[in-house]
Automatic annotation (TrEMBL):
Organism (species): Streptomyces glebosus
Entry keyword Transcription: no
Active site: S52, K93
Transmembrane segments: 20-43, 213-233
Record-given protein name: Signal peptidase I
PANTHER family: CHLOROPLAST PROCESSING PEPTIDASE, SIGNAL PEPTIDASE I
Classification via InterPro entries: LexA/Signal_pep-like_sf (IPR036286), Pept_S26A_signal_pept_1 (IPR000223), Peptidase_S26 (IPR019533)
Primary location: membrane
Amino acid sequence: MSSSTEHRTDGRGRTTGSVLSGLAVAVGCVLFLGGFVWGALIYRPYTVPTDSMSPTIAAGARVLAERVDGSEIRRGDIVVFKDDVWGDLPMVKRVVGTGGDKVACCTKQGRLTVNGKPVEEPYLQGSGPASPVGFKAKVPAGQLFLLGDHRNDSLDSRVHLTDGDHGSVPRSAVNARVDARAWPLGSVGVMRRPTSFAALPGGISQPGPVRPITLAVVAGAVLILGGAAYGPLARRGARKRG
């Protein structure tokens, strides 16, 4: 009797290879579908309509935003929010100040300051100052001060400085935190948290589970394709041996 794996049976006429291929497909389906369900429960897709977050997020780009409570937001996060004062549509901006912060711009070197400390912002569009127009604001408790990365082309907290909340929005206005770019393909990737805010009280947030979700989906697809391909390949091999 042959000792090769493809000729061993499980007592019901099935070869060991076919059993393993079926198991691979089953596990692959669990990972693949489970990853999509997991992602759908945690993430929401958004299309960024304007250029205000360029170069970090280009106009028309598709992003994945993690559903989070506003209390979880930290400085440096890119958030999706909706505020009646700002308009009826969801907007995407970067948080640079939280309740109690004094946000100002600019230093002689053209930097933004938070509580008097200059902040490096490598994500900004262009090499000019952090804002073409100087400003300063005290962020009320429970509020967030938001700016676009394209400071020359962003309608953000600077435009609303004369409002009652000094241009800030309540944490409760935040719907989600942008965790990754999903489209176009050349820009796909997880958002990096800016380390310049890490030394400030509260630090920076941690990425959501987008990496393990992606790994589960990819691994599931590989197992499904590999398991499904075993049968035709095994039969072809058997014909050649015959």
